[in-house]
Amino acid sequence: MKKQTVRFRYAVLGAGRQGIASAYDLGKFGGAREIVLIDIDESVAEAGVEQINTLLDRKVASAVQADAQDVERLLSVLDGVTAFISGVHYPLNPSLTDLAIRIGAHMCDFGGNTDVVREQLQRDADAKARGVTIVPDCGMGPGMNISLATYAMSLLDNPREVFIWDGGLPQDPKPPWNFLLTFHIDGLTNEYSGHAYYLRNGKITEVPCFDGYEELDFPPPIGKLEAFVTSGGLSTAPWTFQGTLDRLENKTLRYPGHWAQFRAFRELGLFEREPIEIDGRKVVPRDVFHALIEPEVTQPEIRDMGVMRIKCIGEKDGQRAEAIVELIDSYDERTGFTAMQRLTGWHASIIAILAAQGKVQRGAVPVELAVPGSTIVEEARRRGFAIAERTVFVE
């Protein structure tokens, strides 16, 4: 790798797994002269800094204790930052967007809620006026899955339908759950609640979670996986591509059996947030479910895989054609990063780096429009991601 020019000051809010992976990537590929790792728990931030500096073999990261809700404190901590990544709970992202515009720093975040993303995108005019880029909903899905979809679309002359399948899986599934939690438990039950929004026949269509069950085959050692509807995986893409695509869908991949188990939990009401009364005491079903399931699907060492497949149907050279893009990534022995860390954290850091370099349009930009899919694929391959693609003509 060519020696990079060290000139940017970055920050990452939230020293969790994905935040640490982002910070590492900013240091390795982002021309970082400094990376500030911020967390409400100083010891967590310091542990993250030690890991980053050790992996990069230079003292580029520093730890700061701060609460993401303390605007005045953040104003001081983020002074002089070129770009920052928010890895905190999604309700805080609108206020952090305002802060980014105020201090003139680019911002990406890991998202988590499409309504919150829409609120952030309403700051477009202010962000443009300040000369900054805001890109919400980066990560694995939404994020990398959408970027790969736009890449698949670019492989055809006239894309009409896009189908996305993605998911995080344990390398060594253990019954009865055959599932491993690689992100916050809230994110899992959020994905499994409510509705997703797709494009069908060119129209925005609301589809219930757990609908659309199907099975797909993947290369060994993965084998057969099941896929079903979950919420939020497409972010704002259905609205962006309305008028361009006839169909746009995204499903989550899991090992066989998961769909039936977790659909039963949902139908029992265990994902509900409204308290119920039991023996005179009020309890929140979702809290009970989290307390019971989290220890069952959490391990101290996570060895996982991230699997993505995109199929785009349309026309090329005047003939009906399909473009298929596939990414399979695994836990990295050298860095200790999980596939979920790499796919989530590095998608955000790629966009933050490009924004710092002036290669992303200014304003509050949806992830599907921020960076061309071909650029994301190029940057992902630089980082060692194996992305396969093929275009075939069909009858």
Walkthrough of the structure:
The chain has 395 residues and is of the alpha/beta class. The protein is built from 14 helices and 18 strands. The chain folds into two domains: 8-138 and 341-371, Rossmann fold (3-Layer(aba) Sandwich); 141-339 and 382-393, Dihydrodipicolinate Reductase, domain 2, CATH 3.30.360.10. α1 packs parallel to α2 and α7 packs across α12. The chain is globular. The N and C termini lie far apart (44 Å).
Short key terms for the protein model shown above:
395 residues; alpha/beta; Rossmann fold; Dihydrodipicolinate Reductase, domain 2; 2 domains; seven-stranded parallel β-sheet; 14 helices; 18 strands; 35% helix
Percent range of helical residues? 25-40%
Structural class: alpha/beta
Tell me the Rg in angstroms: 21 Å
CATH fold label of the largest domain: Dihydrodipicolinate Reductase, domain 2
Biggest sheet, in brief?
A: 7 strands, parallel
Strands of the largest sheet, in order across it? Answer: 3-2-1-4-5-6-17
What is the CATH C level class of the largest domain, in words?
Answer: Alpha Beta
Shape: globular
- Low-confidence runs (pLDDT<50, min 5 residues)? none
Percent of residues in beta strands?
Answer: 25-35%
N-end to C-end Cα span? 44 Å
Number of domains: 2
How many DSSP E strands?
18
Averaged pLDDT, please?
95
CATH superfamily of the largest domain: Dihydrodipicolinate Reductase, domain 2
Q: Any guess at the CATH architecture of the largest domain?
A: 2-Layer Sandwich
Count up the helices. 14
